[in-house]
Amino acid sequence: MKYQTYICALLIISWMGLSAQVASHAPTTSATTAPANSPKPSAIQVSDKPVARVNGAVLTDRDLLREMYSIFPYAQQHDGFPKAQEAAIRQGALEMIIFEELVYQEAVRRKVTIPLQQVKQGEAAFEAQFGSPDRYQEYLRVEMQGNPELMRLKIRRSMMIEEVLKTDVDDKSNVTLAEAREYYNKHPQRFTTPESYSIQTISILPPKDADPTKLTAQQKADVQRRADDALRQAKNAQSYEQFGLLAERISEDDYRVNMGLHKAVQAADLSPEMLTILAGMKPGTLSGLIPVEGAYTIIRLNSHSVPTKKSFEEVKSPLRVELQKEKYETLRANLDKQLRAKAKIEIV
Fold first, then answer.
1. How far apart are CA 35 and CA 188, in angstroms?
2. Which of 45, 163, 182, 233 is such that its CA lies 20 to 30 A from the CA of 12?
3. What residues make up the domain containing 151?
4. Residues pairing with 298 in the sheet
5. Closest Cα to residue 300, out of 315, 286, 320, 282?
6. 103 and 339 in contact (C-beta within 8 Å)?
7. CATH assignment at residue 288
């Protein structure tokens, strides 16, 4: 649940010697000391100055820092946030705390209630993170003036936010098998592996400083002679490894450094002439000499993969997760837009 992430972040900030802070709808407290085993202080300082007002509710730089730590929890280890990312993290955190405040206010408008027992369960989960009752009591004494009710206010607020998100986003983002199958049927190309060929090549090229379209008779004869010799040697290569070692030794194209191996080439990316040549070959056979702009290439076909389509049974689970995530993000964005449309938001 989101409130668990929230109170974890709250715990981090509290142990850094910062005073606990709630938005303007709840009481605030001030800490003067931190536990002896508190982590190294952050390079970022807070002063409870406002960073935004949402329908009059004040959000402070302490609220902002709490969310920034939620987005980038490693900041504590690095004495702050990466300079290149800090602005983006800050903006993302600002948008999040505004959204949470809007959702909380919507929960209050709807008169959402959280049973005391549920709040106490959340408090128990929070307490368990301290490792011992004594450490938790010390936290309450320092940060909550010894009053557990202040912590319950924080937890209750987060649970109220969670309840609105559950009814407006979570519950509505479910994707049924029928919906997933409909998507699968409408987008067959997504689940089809295209036809492809895996090949090795040995290429014999004209001189580097020669224009391939203006080779002399002598240059053409030299390229032809070297290509014939390469083909003769290639025919004696009985395996992928033997052909590859030969390619490394005599081939003049860039693929020689990788045993002449090309990544799998999709049929759609090949010329009609090349497809015709490959169509007449079987895995493990050679093409013969293929003239290409004054050069010659020898192809060894390693494998030919025909188009295959994954069944719905194979993809249904990850597809539902993917579609549900997309649906969730859309619903959440729409909720944010709707709440902002009727709110007064001031960035300070």
1. 59
2. 163
3. 2-176+326-347
4. 202, 289
5. 286
6. yes
7. 3.10.50.40
